[in-house]
Design brief:
The complex is a heterodimer of chains A (502) and B (302). Helix content of chain A is 11%, strand content 44%. By secondary structure, chain A is mainly beta. Chain A has a 16-stranded antiparallel barrel with strand order 3-6-7-8-9-10-11-12-13-16-17-18-19-20-21-22. In chain A, β20 and β21 form a beta hairpin. The radius of gyration of chain A is 24 Å and the shape is globular. Chain A starts with a helix and ends with a strand. Chain B has 302 residues and is an all-alpha fold. Chain B folds into 2 domains: 108 residues, Cytochrome c-like domain (Cytochrome Bc1 Complex, Chain D, domain 2); 127 residues, Cytochrome Bc1 Complex, Chain D, domain 2 (Orthogonal Bundle), CATH 1.10.760. Helix content of chain B is 40%, strand content 3%. Chain B contains 10 helices and 2 strands; from the N terminus they run αββααααααααα. A two-stranded antiparallel sheet of chain B has the order 1-2. In chain B, a hairpin with a 2-residue loop joins β1 and β2. In chain B, α3 packs across α4 and α9 packs across α10. Chain B is elongated and about 95 Å long. The N and C termini of chain B lie far apart (99 Å). Classes of the chains: A mainly beta (502), B mainly alpha (302).
């Protein structure tokens, strides 16, 4: 390892080669391996397994509710659908030991490497001209945001979730906060949730097993066509009220949600952080339905497992301009007050959670359609420019989990999003039809080496590679400027993290 | 060696070391073991048969590890890591003694009995209902549970209890059941009013010497082994093995047992039922003529 190598090790160095990166990763792997052996050897030798966040209450192993945490299996789904109750007449908090407090911390220290090419960078590193085109690379140790999760029952059939969540710099917001009235009239088909919560997605992004910048979310859950003013993200928590129901074993599930048209924003804004644009005064609707069944196996063998299929539809609207408030001195003092000129959009799709013994497949297809005013970012008070049309997109993903056992899972995902119809803005610029398309590949492995009482630890390794055309990668990698707008931007993540929850 | 070759070699070596680390750790304790059930008996041939479904112990082993091991333990003896916090204690499968059976006391339960227990769970305990699992998975679990004790290889399950049709719910039936409640000294544990406060209640222990409480009828909770009159009939005709609740199959006739069922329902004052309604009407008119249940009614409760 020469001086040359050491000099090249700067994460900002565009000449930092993949082989050097591999070497760095190998060192990290080696360190993890050594730490694992030593740490595990020092652990108590009792025969113990995992306890989940609710373990202090129920004493079940993590794996009872999770295929691999945080992803739920059907038992966990039923527990959640019942309002975090096992329905064994010991759910109400009056039965709990006074020292019990339903709270869990989750955070992930990590090392990761991010790259994005086709970026406007310095022609000579450090000259600040941003006149060159090249690859941006960053790497190092890092920290995820933190979840401070509390959930449980306030009384029999009254449950709650409170989830303050921070970014890595400890800027907090309320990711989830709701109260739920369960089993109204003694029926599992009637449950009402009120507050801020995740949409009733068959494939939950909040319980994703991937953590990297590029792989740690579903691209299509946050996709909008290039130039579109719509800020909706199907994977984002929304605020409103939800009526949901399920059969006794949750094989059949439905939900109907009425939500503020503000992307889950608080304080009449469109986000959960200060300074977000104001919201409008309308409401969106989300519908979800799914049905599970047991797939029989060959004669003489156990079945393949539980299969679930479902469909969803989100119908919403977003403002195209704002009413403003000023001090009377003219437009310079005007600040947006409330969103007006609502125009509609919708997302529809189907998904599934399929099992073949230890293999789980998660396919999803979604179609998105926005009003031309949203697609072209034109106020509805103005006429649409000639040639403007409703932007559409379609696509989805196929995710695979292979469970070697409850403590080891191999992961892979492929995603593809195609823009079906470009909005006016892009057509006028002679943009190719592929503008906005996204392709993503992600591979990973999670190992839950120790699952102690009141805590879980997972070692997470991932590689994710995403190609976007005409847009910056949704991961946020890159500088925000695409050097050649219609060329592909490849963004990749290599990630090693130690995911732990207490 | 070029940097490229070195990097590849180093990466592969690291992965190998990582794998070796897991293996070493496995050998040292069950804590991180890929197979914490290494000590489990052979499961290759054990099966269960429930209503046309054949359960396979090999599949059940994986399910046991995922769902059951925390309480019932890697040795099946009810000493999982959570056992210390659980009351009542988890079932010790190595003894093959089960409370909820359709078979005579002292005999093994049927596969269906175990399947029903797994499906139903045990109210007011930490054992939840596993109905969210598929019928096949529950059958697989039953097959694996049967591998923990050699009794399953040596003995057949007992003959299933024949439950005759329920007799009519009448005031005479309830009064006769009340007599039996006094005569069989049920009140000594369950209390004169079914509040689990009989004179023996505080002294009861299970077969492992752990304190155990008698069932409290007054709360309206479901019974441990089901919630119908037939379930209640079955409970005191088979007994709850491993607990102080004996079998009365050799003591009373089936018609008497139904009378006792009807009276016990009247003790469930928090659970509206036909027997309770009938009894409350009767008591309103004849309450003063009833002898109290307890030690002072040695000659009969009526």
């Amino acid at each position: 390892m020469s001086k040359k190598f050491c000099e090249g090790a700067s994460p900002m160095n565009v000449n930092w080669s993949r082989w050097k990166t591999m070497l760095t990763c190998a060192v990290l792997l080696m360190a993890i391996a050594v730490c694992d052996v030593r740490t595990a050897s020092a652990l108590p030798s009792g025969k113990v397994m995992a306890i989940p966040a609710f373990a202090r209450k129920y004493g079940l192993p993590c794996s009872a509710c999770h295929t691999a945490w945080p992803e739920l299996n059907n038992f966990g789904q039923v527990f959640r659908d019942n309002g975090y109750q096992l329905m064994n007449d010991r759910d109400s908090p009056i039965w709990q030991n006074p020292s019990y407090f339903p709270i869990t911390f989750r955070i992930t220290p990590s090392w990761h490497r991010e790259t994005a090419n086709n970026q406007a960078i310095d022609s000579v590193p450090g000259n600040g001209d941003a006149a060159g085109v090249g690859k941006f690379t960053q790497s190092g140790f890092d920290l995820s945001g933190m979840d401070l999760w509390s959930a449980g029952t306030l009384y029999k059939n009254i449950s709650f979730v409170l989830l303050p969540s921070s970014d890595p710099t400890a800027v907090w917001h309320f990711e989830s906060a709701f109260i739920r009235f369960d089993n109204l009239h003694g029926s599992p088909w009637l449950n009402v949730k009120f507050g801020r919560f995740e949409l009733d997605n068959l494939i939950s992004e909040k319980r994703l097993l991937f953590l990297s910048n590029n792989g740690g979310f579903y691209q299509i859950y946050h996709f909008n066509d290039p130039g579109d003013s719509n800020n909706f993200g199907f994977g984002d928590n929304q605020i409103g009220v939800e009526l949901a129901g399920h059969s006794a074993n949750s094989y059949t599930r439905y939900s109907v949600s009425v939500l503020s048209s503000n992307e889950g924003g608080v304080n009449f804004t469109t986000d959960v952080v200060p300074g977000a644009p104001p919201s409008n005064r309308s409401y969106d609707v989300n519908l979800a339905f799914s049905q599970a069944f047991n797939a029989p196996g060959p004669p003489g063998e156990s079945g393949f497992g539980q299969e679930r299929v479902g469909a969803f539809a989100y119908i919403g609207q977003r403002p195209t301009y704002f009413q403003t408030l000023g001090d009377g001195s003219g437009p310079a003092s005007a600040v947006p007050l409330v969103g007006l000129g609502n125009k509609p959009f919708y997302r529809i799709g189907v998904g599934a959670d399929l099992s073949y013994k230890n293999l789980e497949l998660l396919p999803l297809f979604m179609y998105g359609h926005d009003n031309p005013y949203l697609g072209t970012s034109v106020p509805s008070t103005a006429p649409l420019p000639t040639g403007a049309q409703a932007p559409t997109f379609y696509g989805g993903f196929l995710e695979a989990h292979y469970y070697l056992n409850p403590q080891n899972v191999a992961l892979a995902r492929f995603e593809q999003i195609n823009v079906g119809q470009q909005s006016f803005n892009n057509i006028s610029a002679g943009v190719p039809g592929s503008n906005g398309n996204v392709t993503a590949y992600t591979f990973g492995y999670r190992w839950y080496p120790i699952m102690f009482s009141r805590a879980g630890v997972a070692l997470d390794g991932e590689y994710s590679r995403v190609r976007t055309i005409g847009q910056e990668p949704l991961s946020g990698d890159g500088t925000g400027v695409v050097a050649n707008p219609f060329n592909a931007v490849w963004s990749s993540s290599i990630y090693f993290g130690i995911d732990f929850a207490f | 060696m070029t940097l490229k070759k070195f990097a590849v070699t180093f990466a592969l070596g690291s992965v190998a070391l990582l794998t070796a680390g897991a293996t070493v750790t496995t050998a040292q304790s069950h804590v991180n073991s890929p197979d914490p059930l290494l000590g489990a008996p052979s499961v290759a041939t054990e099966t269960s048969s429930i209503d046309g479904i054949t359960g396979h112990a090999e599949e059940g082993k994986h399910l046991y590890r995922r769902f059951c091991i925390g309480c019932h333990g890697p040795d099946g003896n009810g000493q999982g890591m959570n056992a210390q916090w659980i009351d009542p204690q988890p079932r010790d499968f190595t003894e093959a003694t089960f409370k909820c059976r359709s078979t005579p006391t002292g005999t093994l339960p049927t596969d269906e009995d175990l399947y029903n227990a797994v499906t139903r769970g045990f109210v007011t305990t930490n054992m939840p209902s596993w109905r969210p699992l598929s019928p096949q998975q529950r059958a697989d679990m039953v097959a694996f549970i049967k591998t923990w004790s050699p009794r399953w290889a040596k003995e057949k399950p007992g003959a299933t209890l024949n439950i005759p049709p329920e007799t009519a719910i009448t005031i005479e039936s309830i009064l006769h059941g009340r007599e039996l409640f006094q005569k069989l000294e049920c009140w000594k544990c369950h209390g004169p009013t079914g509040n689990a406060d009989g004179p023996s209640a505080a002294t009861l222990t299970d077969s492992k010497g752990n304190p155990i409480k008698p069932f409290n009828f007054s709360t309206g909770d479901r019974f441990m082994c089901g919630d119908t009159n037939r379930d209640l009939f079955r409970i005191f005709m088979t007994g709850l093995d491993g607990s102080p609740m004996p079998s009365f199959a050799d003591v009373i006739q089936p018609n008497d047992a139904w009378d006792l069922v009807h009276f016990l329902r009247t003790l469930q004052v928090a659970l509206p039922n036909q027997e309770l309604t009938l009894w409350q009407s009767y008591k309103a008119a004849h309450g003063k003529d009833l002898k109290p249940i307890g030690p002072d009614s040695a000659g009969g409760a009526q």
